Amino acid sequence: MTGQEEKVTVLETTIDDMNPEIYSYLFDKLMKDGALDAYVIPAYMKKNRPANLLCVICHAEKLETLLETVFRETSTLGVRIREEKRRVLYRSFEPVNTPWGEVTVKTGFAGEDKKEILQIAPEYEECRSLSEKSGIPLKKVYTAALLAFEKLKK
Fold first, then answer.
1. Which among 41, 59, 87 is the end of a domain?
2. Is the dihedral of CA 39, 19, 52, 55 positive or negative?
3. Cβ(128)–Cβ(101) under 8 Å?
4. Range of the domain at 145
């Protein structure tokens, strides 16, 4: 079996009457409050009103906290809740050195033995921070972290 299976809770609501500037703050708060992921999908509601479908994925123990956040921070009057299964890759996090500082690289593996690497991704926020501090383009820092990881694994 590729990855490990787990149960997650999905909160979902359509919002058609909220200032879109609020979403950035909302996503930050949802993640801080324990969401595994949060996103919106453009949608059309009755009478062809443009809207956003807000989806929040979490573990069951974070449900009440995240429901409160959604109700307090959005204009919704109701939230659909369902339990789903998902598969996630086994992961490891390793620091690598770039010319501008250290970056953590996240690696996703097919199996628990961590032999077959399927995904490699430098941590975006760390790369962004180094880019802002050094004045080096973000894509250059990101690429340097990938190359440093490849050298580490040889």
1. 87
2. positive
3. no
4. 89-153
Q: What is the mean pLDDT of residues 100-105?
A: 98
What percent of the chain has a predicted confidence (pLDDT) above 90?
Answer: 91
Residue identified by tokens 């409050």 is 33
3-state secondary structure the chain: CCCEEEEEEEEEEEECCCCCCHHHHHHHHHHHCCCCEEEEEEEECHHHCEEEEEEEEECHHHHHHHHHHHHHHCCCCCCEEEEEEEEECEEEEEEEEECCEEEEEEEEECCCCCCCEEEEEECHHHHHHHHHHHCCCHHHHHHHHHHHHHHHHC
CATH number at residue 144: 3.10.20.300
Which pTM value belongs to this model? 0.85
CATH at 8: 3.30.70.1380
What is the average pLDDT across 21-30?
97
At 121 the pLDDT is 97
